[in-house]
Amino acid sequence: MRQILDSGLGHGYWGWMFNSGRGEGKSLSFAPLHRSDLVYIAPSGVQKELMKNTDIYVLALSRQTDLKNRVYLRSPPCGRPSQCTPLFLAAFTKRGAGCCIHTHSQWAVLVTLILETQGPGRDKLFEINNIEQIKGFGRGFQKQGNLGYHDTLRIPVIENTAHEEDLTEFLEEAMDKYPDTYAVLVRRHGVYVWGDNVHKAKTMCESLDYLFQLAVEMKKLGLPWLADVPQVLPSSKR
Length: 238
Hints:
CATH topology: L-fuculose-1-phosphate Aldolase
Strand order of the largest sheet: 6-10-9-8-7
CATH architecture: 3-Layer(aba) Sandwich
Shape: globular
Strand content: 15-25%
Radius of gyration: 18 Å
Number of strands: 10
Number of domains: 1
Helix content: 25-40%
CATH superfamily: Class II aldolase/adducin N-terminal domain
Order of helices and strands: HEEEEEHEHEEHEEH
């Protein structure tokens, strides 16, 4: 678990507050680890940069018969596991992810609000293409390689609920509908991002926040997120 804290996700990473996820501006909830059969989860409502190893909840996926009534190998005497736990477990069980990050990025929230103004039928999917940073994303679950410059990145949007754990079934539905996505936006709330390991999850989380901010600025300038840009080839490939 120290790998998360030492990787740069904590202590004001990107100017985000690494806490219980309830701060203002940009806040980063915890990014649990999935190693082999074990899952390491932070307690809820705790300043994450001050956590000790003994504060971490540990469960074995193979021993779970009902993910709603989880059995932990280690359960600290104080507190309770993160309310995001069932959503993190969805990424681990449905996608084999090694790390899942949840943020309350203001840019993610703004993108969902912009989509909300598009009306029914156009508010459930963020799409952007012909932007270099799209290369930071894999092509999809069990697929090789990353997206290219001319590809279209698609991130589904689900509606927020009053309680975090109630988002689980909607997140799972979005994952089923868009099997190649590595993220799901939650309207007026934030985003969940996962990857095969800490490095890949962190890279895609960085790339997404950049793209969300870019999308907001593009909208201010009246620029479309989807554009028909012709391929430019060197003379040797024409």
